[in-house]
Each structure stands twice: as C-alpha cells, then as structure tokens.
Amino acid sequence: MFFDNNTFKHGVRIEGHKDLTSGRPIEVCPPPENIVLPLSMHIGAPAKPVVAVGDKVKMGQLVAQAQGFVSSNIHSSVSGVVQAMERRFLPSGALSECLVIANDGLDTLDETIEPRSTGLVLAPKEMRSLLQSKGIVGMGGATFPTHVKYTPPSDKPQVIDTVIINGIECEPYITADHRVLVEYAPEVIRGLKYFMKAVLATRGVIAIESNKPDAIALLQKLTEQEENITVVSCPEKYPQGSEKQLVYAVTGRVIANRALPASVGVVIDNVATAVWAARAIKDDMPCIERVVTLSGDGVQRPGNYLVRLGTSYEHVVKTCGGGIKEPLVKILSGGPMMGFAISNLDYPVLKGSGGVLLFAAGAPITTQGRERQCVRCGHCLDVCPMFLEPTVIAQAVKARNWSAALQANVASCIECGSCAYVCPAYIPLVQHIRMAKQFIASDGRGGHNPLYNIKD
Questions:
Q1: What's the pLDDT score for residue 445?
Q2: Which of 67, 178, 205, 367 is the most exposed, having the fewest neighbouring CB atoms within 10 Å of its CB?
C-alpha cells in the first residue's frame, strides 16, 4: 500500500515538452578528438590526478583519485595521451581543474577491468567498495558519491529497509532517464538488487511518473515475479523527483528538516545510477559515459545520446544534433527549472549532465516579464514543497539580512523553482535564495556571485 495517491503536498503542474525526444531511442555519440575531465564532477573534495601531462592512458583507467570519503574516482573515457591540466568553468559557475586527454581513437580498454558472471555473489562490503572504486555518483544531477549512501556510519548505524529507484524525471524536456528505463530495464532492476543487498534492504521500489506508460508497463512485466520489488506510478507533478517528496509519496515517511532519507530507513538513487552501478559491480566497468538529452527548438535534431564523459556540448550538438538553428538565444545545461543558463557550448558532459537545451528566438522560455513589486498573492507559499515563505527570504536577501534569511529556513530550500514559476511579479526567487546560501556559506563574501559587491 502506498501513501496519499503516490504524491506529495504542494508543487506545480507544468508542461512537460517531452514529445520532442521521449520516443527517440538512445544513439551512441562518437567520441571527440579531445575530452576534458573536471576533477570536481561530484559533490565533495575534488579528485587528485594520478597521471601527468604526456602519460598514455587507456579507456576505463583511473586518472584521478578520490580525496576523502565524500569524493569520487575519475576514469578516462577514451584511450590516448594526457595533453594538459587546466582550469575551466563548469555550467554551475564553479571553477575546476581539468585533465585534457587527446583521443587516439582506439578505445583500448584498461586491462585491470575484469567482468564477473554475477554481482550477487559479492558481500555488501565488496559491493560498496566497487561503487567507490568505479566512481559511481548520483547521475540525476546531485552527483553525491553513491558508496556513501550505502555505508552505514560506524558510530550510529541506521537500518535501511527500503531502496527507491527514482525514475520520475519531472524536469521539462529531459527524457534521458525515460529512455534508460525503456532500453536498459534489466540493468535498472539488477542495480536495484545490488543496492538492496548492499544495505540488506527487504523492499525495493521503482518509482516512475505517469507520463511514461511504456516504461511503467515494461518494468511491471519484468518484476512481476520479484516478491520484494514494486513498480509505482506517481502522478505527473513537479518536483515529484525530489528525494523528500518522493519518500513521502512512496512510503508516507517524513524526513526531518535537513535530514537524509536514511534517517527514515530509505535510500534513493536515480535510474541511471542504478544502471552504471550494475555495470560497475557485474562488469567491473567504471563510470565513463552517460545518456544525455539534447532538446529544444534551437537544435536541428533533438534526441537522446550515449556520450563519453568529458565530451563538449558543442561536439554533441554538431555531431549528433545536426547543429543549431539560428538565431539561438538561450542555452541551458540541465532542465529549465533547475538547470543553469550558459553562454556557449564549450562545457564538458559530466556525470550529472542529464540534458542540454537550446532555444531559438520566439520560444516562450526565452521571454520573461520584468521584475515587479511583490503583490503578496501567496502563490509561492501555496506551491513550495518545503512549506517555506520564498518571498520572505527574498526580502531578507535584498536587505542583506542573512540572519533573517536563516530564520526563514533558507537552507531548507531545494531550489526547485516552483515559487518563481508561479510568481506573477516575475521575482527571481530562486536566484535570491541561492545568493543567500552563497553569502551565508562564505561568511558574507558572497562566493562567486557577481550580482552583489560586499563593499557596496
């Protein structure tokens, strides 16, 4: 039995725009001449290079090692020669050291990779070790190192009884996870089984939004003989895929403010994470590629593509998408609700890169009214899935009253963008909230936010 019609309270219903790519099978994107691998494509400490300029590397070889428990290994997605180490901006605006590798076109596989017949023979500790060594992170966008989720704290072990595979994908335009569900379904199930064994969970749930009926039917068919695995159809609503909202929808359990799903006995992972975890545990294959949606009316050929990590967005657009449609006026890394606007296509595909969206002049997403005074309509309160008061936080930020922002629980905001979506005054509420977090985290210096100068 599931809770409250398998959904959560508040949120918004938005146009999905998924028809451009939802029916397009995954195609392989040819690897580029050069790849750029940031050392910070995960949450936590940047990885440390274990190769130097001039070194030859093989596909799947470890090129940067995790520094600390919350960090992740990085492996070369091609075979070739390390050309350079340079600093580059990522779509989020963060600056990262990057390894540049010249592709020799041979895809020579690292000889240390040794597939096994099944992963279920491994002990939970061995599974967690493979998730760590193979660089598996949350591929839904959060990029949290996966092994951390499945490693109980030694001082305070928590009983995990449920593992949820998140196949919601509620961001408009993005359909990469939908295609993964349809085309890699056996691996999704295998990954779930591995996750369940890694924490000795007795229940597995694959949650899929109702706008993916083909995926729901397929996964239900493939799991009908699995006593401990259930496929749940959740109503189409945003942000249904957010972890606290999904845990509530599926189990009825409420995660306390700033707590993790493990606190209520649940672990959540994205469908793509499950697939690449299955490949890491059974095939011994590191995370070196992912499925990326290329969509929007600014690209000639929208689709879903299997892309090597470190491939530039520009290469994907030119090689797979047939180029851009002029005049191109907006590029998004990620979805329109939680993604980042970028000025060009010179960014690499990362472990958390689910989509690249391009929009030509005249697309509704490219136009927005000018910001006006708050009219106190309360719409932002009505839709906030975290039950916050976004307009109160925004007012505190404008006044640079960081203590007031903290009192309004700014840290609890998941930055889903629901408030800004419904705001009739076009107030950039999410940007104000992100700004508050940056200033608070940096003791008033503002991080890399260029909009405010602390000397003003």
A1: 57
A2: 367
Q: What is the CA radius of gyration of the chain?
A: 22
Question: Contact 416/14 with Cβ under 8 angstroms?
Answer: no
Do both 9 and 121 map to the same domain?
Answer: yes
**Residue 412 belongs to some domain of the structure:** yes
Q: How far is CA 109 from the centre of its chain?
A: 27
Contact of 344 with 331, CB cutoff 8 Å: yes
What are the counts of helices (DSSP H) followed by strands (DSSP E) for the chain? 13, 17
pLDDT band, very low/low/confident/very high, at 446 (cuts 50, 70, 90): low
Shared domain for 134 and 263, answered yes or no, is yes
Specify burial of residue 384 (Cβ count, 10 A radius: 0-12, 13-18, 19+): buried
Q: Are residues 390 and 265 in the same domain?
A: no
pLDDT, tens digit (0-9, with 9 covering 90-100), for 207-242:
999 999 999 999 999 999 999 999 999 999 999 999
**CB proximity list for 168: less than 8 A, separation 6 or greater:** 207, 208, 209, 234, 240, 241, 246
Which residue matches tokens 């064994």? 197
Structural domain count, the chain = 2
Residue 241 near residue 140, CB atoms below 8 Å: yes
Q: Are residues 127 and 276 in the same domain?
A: yes
Which contiguous run of DSSP H or E holds residue 131? helix 124-133
Distance between CA atoms of residues 231 and 85, nearest Å: 45
- Residue 26 within any structural domain of the chain: no
Q: Do residue 404 and residue 276 come from a single domain? A: no
- 321 is a domain residue: no
The SS3 of residue 149 is helix
Please check the confidence at residue 442 and state whether its pLDDT lies above 80: no
Long-range contacts for 45-51 (Cβ within 8 Å, ≥24 apart)?
45/70, 45/71, 46/71, 46/96, 46/97, 47/71, 47/72, 47/73, 47/74, 49/85, 49/97, 49/99, 51/82, 51/99
Question: Is 247 part of any domain?
Answer: yes
Domain that holds residue 135: 4-21+114-283
- Which of 223, 255, 283 terminates a domain? The answer is 283
Least confident of 87-96, 209-218, 284-293, 444-453: 444-453
Taking the CB of residue 94, how many other CB atoms lie within 10 A of it? 12
Give me the CATH number covering residue 177: 3.40.50.11540
Phi-psi region of 48 (alpha: psi -120 to 50; beta: other; left: phi over 0): beta
pTM of the model: 0.93
